[in-house]
Amino acid sequence: MQTIATTPIRDVITAQRQFFATGKTKDIAFRLTQLHNLYQAIKNREDAIYAALKADLNKPNVEAYYEIVVTRDIKAAIKNLKSWTKPQKLPIPLEQFPAQALRVPEPLGVVLIVGAWNYPFNLIIAPLIGAIAAGNCAVIKPSELSPHTSRLIAEIIGETFPPHYITVVEGGIDMSQQLLAEKFDYIFFTGSPRVGKIVMEAAAKHLTPVTLELGGKSPCIVTEDVNIEVAAKRIVWGKFVNAGQTCIAPDYLLVQQGVKAQLLAAIKAAIIEFYGNEPANSPDYGRIINHSHWQRLTGLLDGGEIIVGGQINPDERYLSPTVMDNVSLEAAVMQEEIFGPILPVMGYGELSEAIDQINRLPKPLALYIFSHNPNHQEQILQQTSSGTVCINDTLVHFITSNLPFGGVGNSGMGSCHGKASFDTFSHYKSILKRSFLFDVDLRYPPYRDKLSWLKRLLGG
Ligand code: NAD
């Protein structure tokens, strides 16, 4: 196994630049082989991935599988790579004839991928697929807060690729800052808006383009006409999977007053059905990543009336699935992304009140609408802005590979998944190929009375 733990960062990047300059990564056959290799490496280490995610987050295997199923994206990239890399022919204006206008994707060079800890495997491998497919070299920095998964990613990558092509640099904030001081050709960052700003500032020094996959408070609106039981199950699943530590977890609920009591009862029933009366004993319920996040979350519990859960155990970093009613908009729980198993619920009368509340906060990463009424759906879609929307379900739009995933405003910029990942790591070079036929001299000086002819020809 090759690792670069002791190699200075700059040497790693220089080695990758030299390898990129050989042009080898541009070869489509080379890229396909690397995608196959990555696929096989993940398949070979599947059990170890379950174990690492269990050690870092107490993730049940079913939930870990949502991360591993990123292999589907590798298969899709392999299947579509030829069509993705094909030059796109574009129409040309009459006066350019005969000519060809083309858009040709080319790799960017050496890219940096920095990950977060909550889906630590997926959040590294998903962008890496795009980086490989597009023909780049990559330096990867997984989150230090999920150390088992970080180590395993370093092993898998070290066993599969030479470090002058793809390599993992493990470490925390210091390492991240060392990397950010270097010049990359692209930075793909997943994490908080706070650190996103640091990344963008560092990237600006080198004019390096970025994708920022950030977070925020993703609202969930429930109107009065839905199937309450199904809505409750989908909300409870989306909120409490991974103990609420999901960037697109429904952060808070806005429920039409008339169905609020019924929905709360159904949510309570769904929590018991999923995790039992003692979620602490459920093999299917996760734990908070570390003590400081656990402390931050328990500090949010006084923002309203706890109607479900609220049980804590610092030794296990446990916080039970918790639902809060009568939450004040000024409470801390409504000021920051919760990123844990606490669900504040607020009632609304008119739909416009719920929309106003959403628009009071920065643009979210995801917006959930539970409603049968197409007019209500449309009103919300028209009057709000969010990175993504999922209607009548939660989270599953993330694993709908053909749907680009990303934020807007405070929740990020750029997108990934499927072809969007390939596009992210490509530069589309515009090429106009002209011929030597017909050298119309209208454009050449001396201009004399050519303007009127030029106007007729170009027709602007
Ligand atoms: P974070 O921003 O604290 O850390 C992310 C990465 O940045 C880590 O690798 C970390 O080492 C590095 N980092 C941390 N502080 C840094 C600094 N000062 N300078 C340079 N690098 C630094 O985020 P996190 O706690 O790992 O993840 C939680 C956040 O990520 C939440 O806001 C969540 O919504 C968001 N998130 C977004 C997505 C998405 O796809 N949009 C996915 C998962 C998580």
Automatic annotation (TrEMBL):
By its UniProt entry, which CDD domains does this protein fall under?
ALDH_YwdH-P39616 (cd07136)
Q: Which Pfam families match?
A: Aldedh
Biological process terms in GO annotation:
aldehyde metabolic process
Domain of life from the UniProt record: Bacteria
Which intervals hold domain Aldehyde dehydrogenase? 9-431
* Cellular component terms per the entry's GO annotation: cytoplasm
Q: Does the keyword Methyltransferase apply?
A: no
Q: Which keywords annotate this record?
A: NAD, Oxidoreductase
Query: Could you state a single Gene Ontology molecular function term?
Result: aldehyde dehydrogenase (NAD+) activity
SUPFAM superfamilies linked: ALDH-like
For this chain, the family text in UniProt reads: Belongs to the aldehyde dehydrogenase family.
Protein name per Swiss-Prot or TrEMBL:
Aldehyde dehydrogenase
What's the source species for this entry? Planktothricoides sp. SpSt-374
